[in-house]
Structures are given as structure tokens and as C-alpha cells.
Amino acid sequence: MLQRLRQTVLRIPRGKVATYGEVARAAGHPGAARQVAWALHNAKDAIPWQRVVGAGGHIRLPGHAGLEQRTRLEAEGVAFRGARVNMALHAFDFSTASRIGAVPSKVKGRKSAAK
């Protein structure tokens, strides 16, 4: 489970964020938001932990760790509205991301008419 959660976090691109709950759902473990936090805590810097935030874009880490998360996100171009990530601009959608680059089934194998 922890490995799958970590692999899901790796799908979040630079400049985008997802909530703990969204990561859990995308990994196939709805309701496991706390386990996402545990998976990130134990992974150290092996994955982009800063891209996972609390509901509504809140940084949930206290003190220096929260400041470091905000600094890392700002370095990636993530904008804030007060203490929250601007989710309208930076929320990552796992459902559309899985379809990027996919060829619709009706088009597969079809040769292009334009040359």
C-alpha cells in the first residue's frame, strides 16, 4: 500500500499539487489520507512530498517543515492565496492525467490521410 501511494505522488508534475485524500483515492485506497502522510514521512526526499497538501490547499505541516513545503512549492511556480495553495490554478487531476497521450480506440491503427 505505501509503495502504491508513493508511486501515485510521483505522478504529480512540477507546479501542481494534490490533497492527501486525492492521492489516496487515485492509488485505490479511498479514505487512507493519513496513510499518505505516513508514506511521505517515511520516504524522506525520495519523492516530491511538497506537492501533497491538505484539503482546500492548506499546508498541514507545522513550523519549519511547513515553511520548507511552501518555499519548495513557490520555487516550482505554485501560487498561494494567503496561506492556501491556489487550487484553481494548481490542482492536479489524476483522472485526466491518466488519459494524456492516450489514443482513442476508434482512431487506433487508422492511417493519416494528410501527407
Average pLDDT across residues?
A: 85
Task: Let me know the number of strands.
Answer: 4
CATH architecture classification: Orthogonal Bundle
Radius of gyration: 17 Å
CATH class, anyone? Answer: Mainly Alpha
Order of SSEs, N→C? HEHHEHEEHH
State the major sheet. 2 strands, parallel
Strand order of the largest sheet: 1-2
> Count of DSSP helices?
6
| Overall form | globular
Summed up, the domain count is 1
Give the percentage of residues in beta strands: 5-15%
CATH T-level fold name: Arc Repressor Mutant, subunit A
Structural class comes to: mainly alpha
Amount of helix: 40-55%
How far the N terminus sits from the C terminus, by CA atoms, comes to 48 Å
Descriptive account of the structure:
With 115 residues, the chain is mainly α. The protein has one domain: Arc Repressor Mutant, subunit A (Orthogonal Bundle), CATH 1.10.10.10. It is built from 6 helices and 4 strands; from the N terminus they run H-E-H-H-E-H-E-E-H-H. The strands form 2 sheets. A two-stranded parallel sheet has the order 1-2. The protein has a two-stranded antiparallel ribbon with strand order 3-4. Helix 2 crosses helix 3. The protein is globular.
